[in-house]
Amino acid sequence: MAAFWSEPDWDEHERVEVVHDRASGLTAIIALHSTHLGPAAGGTRFWHYADPANAMRDALRLSRGMSYKNAMANLPMGGGKAVVLLDKDGRKTESMLHAFGDAVEAMDGRYVTAEDVGATETDMVAIHSRTQHVCGLPADAGDAGGDPGPFTAMGIYHGIKAAVARKLGKDSMQGVRVAIQGCGSVGGGVTKLLAKDGARLTLSDIDEKRAAQMADELGGKAVSPEQAMGTPCDVFSPNALGAILDDAGIAQLDCAIVAGGANNQLARPEHGQMLHDRGILYAPDYVINAGGIINVSYEYLCRREGTPCDINEVRKRIAQIPGRLNEIWAESEKSSRPANEVADAMAQALIGR
Ligand code: NAD
Known about the structure:
2 domains; globular; Rossmann fold; six-stranded parallel sheet; binds nicotinamide-adenine-dinucleotide; alpha/beta; 353 residues; six-stranded mixed sheet
């Protein structure tokens, strides 16, 4: 246990629960980092972890990230995250989802869940049959809610444009070279928005067929996953895995800007300094990728208050992401500190740490 408390990712979490339900076979971790600003909101990741210690690490890192993300998006929500540990076949059943819903309900509104990797809107509906404290539920046209991916993509699109304006002095994406890593829900959404603006796109995905298909449809070029980070470009946009900005990853970069949706992109905080030293403008991940949580937490709050849940309000709030990024970059320039450090300090002040 001593090793657990000394984990840097522990970071004074308010509460961490390990849930096991023998009947359904559910094993889950629910981590609440901070409820300073409101109920801890953050999605549930369904994943097979070969080593359960990695599940705990993921839950702790991701829930702290949610505290920072929600605070920097001006949401009245704290930060939390859950992981459900799947077996190696990835088996996920209705009874596991119900047992997980019961565990969320037992937290009495201190934790609000939603989709993360491995989760669908249908899963949220099953969880909702046991608790009100869930969002990302199917939404009617014109209402907030549903799959957060397209809203996350919208925020990243705004953030990339802000970075290009700041670093390259361009107010249009026409001809701007963007390399996208990961063409899933978020990366695919960003790609579509940038294609409409005439950006020159290079796409990569471990599902190489998916990248090639998207490049064909939208007029870009596909490269292998190994080539992605070294692609000469103006903007490198990571939308797949975390921890890709490590010593080796940063050494490969041939870009002016890193701006994408993947969570926990920096392997360690000092990698933010390395980007800064190389003169690469970095958009802190939890600031630029807040569009999805802005959407679903608005859905949750409207449902709780019984008020209308207009999607245009969500769009308006997502359009504020560039303002926050510019605040960070301005302070970073003024103080010669890397953007990640500036963002962390701002977020910590907001959550009273
Ligand atoms: P997704 O599963 O829909 O897409 C991920 C894509 O990345 C897949 O196409 C996968 O094949 C590809 N991929 C995986 N490893 C890769 C690699 N090494 N190189 C290239 N491609 C690779 O997931 P998503 O919802 O698009 O999420 C992407 C990232 O954004 C994740 O890090 C997630 O935590 C983060 N994120 C997502 C949301 C959201 O609303 N979905 C919100 C905030 C952050």
